[in-house]
């Protein structure tokens, strides 16, 4: 590891715009039109490209006053291209003890990334603020083409520097971003420094108060990605109407215009050739060949797909299927289906999860859905989950609801907040348009109805449709309750419903309401009859191992199991109900849940405990889905 203080990186910040330098202040986000959303390199399917994995040991140091963004108390003298050594810094300190050098990352503790700092040390458990990470890595000895630093995600605002020079900033905690570093790489060791600020504000997405743990840190892999000089930056391959396979691609590089491209699907003997236009874009389609097997939960067939241009080869594994709405039915590959699902947070099973989703952890969680619950559907709440999770869903045959963290009371009238949400949605869709498992893009969860909110979410719905016209759009909504009725009467009155393909309702009657559980089956649901309905959430807390069969106390496994029985009986009486994703598969961390007897910082609505112990309600839902699957 190169022994160099963080000061070198801090000094380099002096050249950044003043708006990036104010301590304690997050740089402004300029509202972006859709055409320029996600303007940094997309590097679609970059997790399958050649490159260097920079996961592993990194030095880290907290910066609670964000001093690093302001360069501490000034600069060291300008020495042009000559680099400061550790000895230089120590001589400067000896010469003038008024110069303060508060951070020395070369001698700071070491963590293993990807991970969240919340589980790194007890004193960091509730730290929200700025954290610096640093390591060195060797550049390839004989370089050609182009190189990019790509982060799968870092929560929330991220500042990236290479060899002391700023290369970019990103806002948003759950989507990938990349910056080109071709000209900044140097022979031998290169130093990368990353600042991650997890502090939420009134204008961030999500806002400061949530009902889950917002793990700060670099929670997904960091890669040095290698491409040809002109490369495939984005490609989208899918099945379209007319029984054809279509491809849209965008090249980036000096020779992107009028360049030959070739799409191949070897197993299907498909070869489609063409040339890009003046903007480096290519679109083509070809008839579906005989022998194509459509992706479905019972047969999640994936095909190796390549797109070649010059020396660059883009790769992915893609399933082909159609998803649409016909009246009140959700139709997959021409056949109506019922979505037998569960909601899920991106958190590993274990007593001290850190949000670093591995293929094994993803398969363990999704295996509980498919094999344990007899499910075919998972709602990945309340933000885009890792590529590891969506690729595992592709392979295991689980239909996915994918969501952005537009949650509760965001700043609906703030144009910067809208720009941030639009960028998150675009990054999520552009990353995952090739995932056959994803059927529904969700633009929000439990948001209060106001004119500003309606305008905000309508913009997101329109964006989703322009970016992807092959999937369904939804949002988890709330309903109005008739307080004067003698039985529960629930009415869908949200004006956003008219804009959505699939209606989705979060309901907690019997838990956050005075209803007796035996009243639930008689509930009346007044919803549009011409659209499919999903119960996107329902649930009750239970602490694994706590039993009270005699009194049916809340937080007992018996109460949760009976809640499920009565809610499922209610669901069976709704003629347009086409699926459900109860809340939630696994108990998950939530700092606002502090009941000392039952919660201790965990939301206990999971059907399994944080360590994977099945509660009684797990079997209730599994049996119900087994019966549903036979219908």
Question: What key attributes describe this structure?
Answer:
631 residues; alpha/beta; 6-stranded antiparallel β-sheet; 33 strands; globular
Overview of this protein structure:
- The chain has 631 residues and is α/β, with parallel strands linked by helices.
- 16% of the residues lie in helices and 28% in strands.
- It has eight helices and 33 strands.
- The strands form eight sheets. The chain has an eight-stranded parallel beta barrel, surrounded by five helices. A six-stranded antiparallel beta sheet has the order 3-2-4-9-6-7, with no helix packed on it.
- β19 and β20 form a beta hairpin.
- The protein starts with 6 loop residues before the first helix and ends with a helix.
- The relative contact order is 0.10.
Quickly describe the structure.
With 631 residues, this protein is an alpha/beta fold.
Shape: globular
Mean pLDDT: 89
Q: What is the helical fraction, as a range of percent?
A: 10-25%
Strand order in the sheet with the most strands: 21-22-23-24-25-28-30-31
Detail the poorly predicted runs. 1-37, 72-80
Number of helices: 8
Overall structural class, as computed from helix and strand content, comes to: alpha/beta
**What would you report as the Rg, rounded to the nearest angstrom?**
26 Å
Q: Main sheet?
A: 8 strands, parallel, barrel
Number of strands: 33
Strand portion: 25-35%
Distance between the termini: 61 Å
Please write out the topology.
Blueprint: H1 7-12, E1 51-53, E2 56-63, H2 86-95, E3 110-113, E4 130-138, E5 146-151, E6 157-162, E7 165-171, E8 177-180, E9 189-197, E10 222-227, E11 231-240, E12 244-252, E13 260-265, E14 270-275, E15 281-287, E16 303-309, E17 312-318, E18 323-326, E19 329-332, E20 335-336, E21 339-344, H3 359-372, E22 377-380, H4 387-396, E23 399-403, H5 415-432, E24 438-445, H6 451-467, E25 472-477, E26 480-481, E27 489-491, E28 503-506, E29 524-526, E30 533-537, H7 557-571, E31 577-580, E32 588-589, E33 602-603, H8 616-629
Parallel strand pairs: 21-22, 21-31, 22-23, 23-24, 24-25, 25-28, 27-29, 28-30, 30-31
Antiparallel strand pairs: 1-10, 2-3, 2-4, 4-9, 5-8, 5-10, 6-7, 6-9, 11-12, 12-15, 13-14, 13-16, 16-17, 18-19, 19-20, 26-27, 32-33
């Amino acid at each position: 590891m190169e022994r160099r203080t963080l000061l070198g990186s801090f000094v380099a910040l002096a050249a950044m715009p003043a708006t990036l330098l104010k301590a304690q202040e997050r740089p402004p986000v300029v509202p972006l039109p859709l055409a320029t959303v996600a303007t940094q390199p997309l590097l679609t399917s970059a997790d399958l490209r050649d490159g260097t994995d920079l996961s592993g040991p990194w030095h880290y140091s907290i910066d609670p006053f964000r001093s690093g963004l302001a360069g501490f108390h000034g600069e060291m003298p300008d020495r042009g291209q000559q680099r400061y050594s550790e000895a230089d810094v120590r001589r400067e300190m000896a010469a003038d003890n008024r110069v303060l050098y508060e951070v020395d990352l070369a001698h700071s503790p070491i963590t293993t990334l990807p991970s969240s700092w919340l589980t790194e040390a007890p004193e960091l458990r509730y730290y929200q603020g700025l954290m610096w990470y640093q390591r060195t890595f060797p550049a390839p000895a004989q370089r050609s083409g182009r190189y990019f630093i790509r982060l799968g995600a870092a929560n929330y605002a991220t500042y990236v520097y290479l060899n002391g020079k700023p290369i970019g900033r990103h806002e948003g905690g759950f989507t990938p971003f990349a910056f080109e570093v071709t000209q900044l790489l140097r022979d031998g060791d290169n130093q990368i420094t990353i600042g991650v600020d997890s502090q939420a504000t009134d204008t961030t997405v999500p806002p400061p108060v949530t009902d889950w743990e917002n793990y700060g840190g670099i929670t997904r892999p960091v890669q040095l990605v290698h491409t040809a000089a002109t490369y495939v930056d984005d490609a989208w391959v899918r099945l379209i109407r007319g029984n054809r396979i279509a491809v849209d691609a965008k090249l980036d590089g000096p020779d992107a215009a009028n360049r030959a491209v070739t799409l191949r699907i070897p197993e299907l003997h498909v070869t489609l050739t063409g040339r890009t236009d003046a903007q480096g874009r290519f679109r083509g389609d070809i008839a579906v060949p005989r022998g194509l097997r459509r992706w479905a939960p019972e047969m999640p067939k994936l095909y190796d797909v390549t797109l070649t241009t010059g020396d660059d080869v883009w790769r992915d594994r893609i399933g082909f299927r159609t998803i649409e709405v016909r009246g009140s039915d959700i139709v997959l590959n021409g056949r109506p289906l019922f979505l037998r699902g569960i909601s899920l947070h991106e958190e590993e099973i274990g007593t001290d999860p850190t949000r670093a989703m591995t293929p094994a952890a993803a398969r363990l969680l999704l295996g509980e859905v498919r094999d344990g619950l007899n499910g075919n559907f998972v709602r990945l709440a309340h933000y885009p989950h890792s590529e590891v999770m969506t690729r595992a869903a592709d392979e295991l045959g689980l239909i996915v609801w994918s969501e952005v963290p537009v949650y509760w009371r965001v700043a609906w009238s703030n144009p910067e907040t809208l720009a941030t949400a639009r960028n998150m949605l675009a990054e999520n869709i552009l990353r995952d348009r090739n995932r056959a498992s994803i059927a529904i893009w969700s633009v929000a969860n439990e948001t209060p109805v106001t004119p500003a909110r309606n305008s905000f979410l309508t913009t997101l719905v329109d964006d989703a449709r322009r970016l992807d016209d092959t999937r369904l759009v939804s949002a988890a909504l709330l309903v109005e309750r008739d307080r004067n009725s003698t039985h529960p009467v629930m009415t869908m009155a949200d004006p956003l419903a008219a804009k959505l393909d699939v209606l989705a309702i979060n309901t907690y009657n019997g838990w956050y309401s005075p209803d007796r559980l035996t009243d639930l089956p008689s509930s009346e649901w007044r919803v549009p009859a011409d659209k499919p309905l999903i119960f996107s959430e329902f649930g009750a807390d239970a602490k694994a191992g706590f039993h009270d069969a005699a009194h049916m106390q809340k937080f007992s496994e018996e109460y949760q199991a009976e809640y499920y029985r009565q809610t499922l009986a209610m669901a069976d009486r709704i003629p347009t109900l086409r699926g459900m994703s109860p809340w939630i598969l696994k108990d998950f961390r939530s700092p606002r849940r502090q009941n000392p007897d039952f919660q201790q910082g965990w939301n206990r609505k999971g059907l399994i405990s944080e360590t994977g112990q099945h509660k009684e309600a797990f079997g209730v839902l599994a049996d119900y889905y087994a019966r549903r699957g036979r219908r």
